[in-house]
Design goal:
This protein is an alpha/beta fold and 444 residues long. The protein contains 14 helices and 23 strands. Strands 18-19-17-16-22-23 form a six-stranded mixed β-sheet, with helices on both faces.
Length: 444
């Protein structure tokens, strides 16, 4: 028996086929999500959901043809972003991704959508769906005929099963903002106070429900990608701190109950449990920006326009240097989008490329550690192990060393390289009743 997990990432789509009961990866596929749509606005980051659906259907049909014993399909994907749907479940808009900045732009009152919601007591950062929707509403950008909105993974579930209205797991709903974890519902009174119509909001479930079937195979409701990664990465939930570095970066701690602190979120997980999460906006993207810096210089010096990652790795290995003191908030923070990065404490003897490279990596680790310090009081006993996932850390031994030194914990890498897709496959087995997820996590 097998389960398929699909992770719709920002830059790639990962598919895992997991054998059950052994829970080993039988096969996997990776394909590009597709580029961002062209826009005249630097703050707009949108993708085409229909092209994503086309690609997913192709690979899914191929796998189902090969594997007649698939018993479940699980979904996950990039959180926070939204797209609009009509009354029949058709996509009416592009996907406004988690990197879209419109929620932080000033509106007619001089305040952003996120500021307006924040003044009412709702938590919403730029890129969160509710802030995106409020901006679109105020600017007349909600498409005619829109009946609801949802994440990309939730829309994929609708498209595969023929559902006409979105049903979001609480892990995805909370990621949109304007959500109350205690009541497991959106804060409709606040929504009305800023001119939003709650009738447009998607339905929410606290269970890993089944949406319907695709080619006779049950499809489960989408799990948030952070929660899916945790499920696919961690075996001892109460003793483990999970670090994930992809385009962004985040740390996750398991908790029995919500805990709020500046810079930290309580994200619904399984049942009444949650993950305490701290996120940076410029995780792996910080290192990618640094590579772009060196590539630009190399081209100006007459070298071919090609990736510089191998050269950067060699510099770190062959010419060790004291790391620069780098703050890597190059894209701001969740709490302060206007924040910026910085370099401090440089002396002439420190001016070496290796020092800059190492400084960015240690700066990435330090930014995550600062968030961990804020979250730690809400997690009960402090974690004893650091587990790392995501290609941004898996492919960078220096970042692994920086994390282990900064957190003063032994670090291990997640076995499943596409842990969110693996977690989605497990969540589908949980939804069909074939696997106890709490037992899997050691929290029974």
């Amino acid at each position: 028996m097998k389960s398929i997990g699909i992770d719709l990432g920002t830059t790639s789509i990962s598919v895992n086929v997991v054998s059950f009961p052994g829970l080993t990866v039988w096969g996997k596929e990776t394909l590009e999500t597709g580029g961002f749509l062209e826009s005249p606005h630097s703050w707009e980051r949108a993708q085409d959901p229909k092209s994503v659906l086309f690609r997913v259907r192709q690979v899914l049909d191929s796998l189902l043809d090969q594997c007649p014993d698939v018993a479940a399909i699980g979904l996950t994907g990039q959180m926070h972003g939204i797209l609009y749907v009509d009354g029949e479940g058709n996509a009416l808009s592009p996907l406004y991704t988690w990197q879209d900045g419109r929620g932080g732009l000033p509106l007619s009152q001089g305040k952003s959508a996120c500021q307006l919601l924040g003044e009412k007591g709702a938590r919403c950062a730029p890129g969160y769906g509710m802030g995106t929707h409020l901006y679109n509403l105020k600017m007349g950008l909600v498409p005619p005929g829109a009946q609801s909105f949802c994440t990309l993974a939730d829309w994929l579930g609708m498209a595969l099963t023929g559902r006409e209205r979105p049903l979001l797991h609480q892990s995805q709903a909370a990621a949109l903002g304007l959500y109350d974890s205690a009541s497991r519902s959106f804060q409709e009174e606040i929504a009305r106070s800023v001119g939003m119509n709650p009738a447009l909001f998607p339905s929410v479930t606290g269970e890993l429900s089944l949406l319907g079937e695709y080619r006779g195979v049950p499809v489960s409701v989408s799990l948030g990608d952070n929660q899916a990664s945790f499920l696919g990465s961690v075996r001892r939930a109460r003793q483990t701190l999970l670090v994930n570095v992809g385009t962004g970066a985040q740390i996750s701690l398991y908790a029995e109950r919500p805990f709020q602190a500046p810079g930290a979120e309580s994200r619904p997980f399984l049942g009444s449990s949650c993950l305490l999460v701290g996120s940076t906006l410029c995780g792996g993207a910080a290192y990618a920006a640094l590579e772009g810096f060196f590539r630009e210089y190399a081209v100006a010096a007459g070298a071919p326009d090609q990736p510089q990652y191998d050269v950067m790795a060699r510099l770190l290995k062959e010419a060790p240097s004291r790391p620069w003191q780098v703050c890597t908030a190059f894209s701001g923070t969740r709490e302060d989008p206007s924040a910026s990065g910085s370099v401090q404490g440089l002396r002439r003897e420190d001016l070496h490329p290796a020092g800059f490279i190492a400084g960015v990596l240690y700066g990435m680790a330090q930014e995550l550690y600062g968030l961990y310090q804020v979250m730690k009081p809400g997690a009960g006993l402090p974690p004893q192990n650091l587990v790392a996932s995501g290609n941004g850390v898996r492919r960078n031994p220096c970042l692994q060393r920086a994390l282990a030194e900064t957190f003063s914990m032994p670090l291990s890498l997640v076995e499943a390289q596409e842990e969110a897709a693996f977690g989605a496959a497990l969540s589908a087995l949980g939804a069909t009743g074939r696997l106890s997820l709490k037992e899997r996590l050691g929290i029974e």
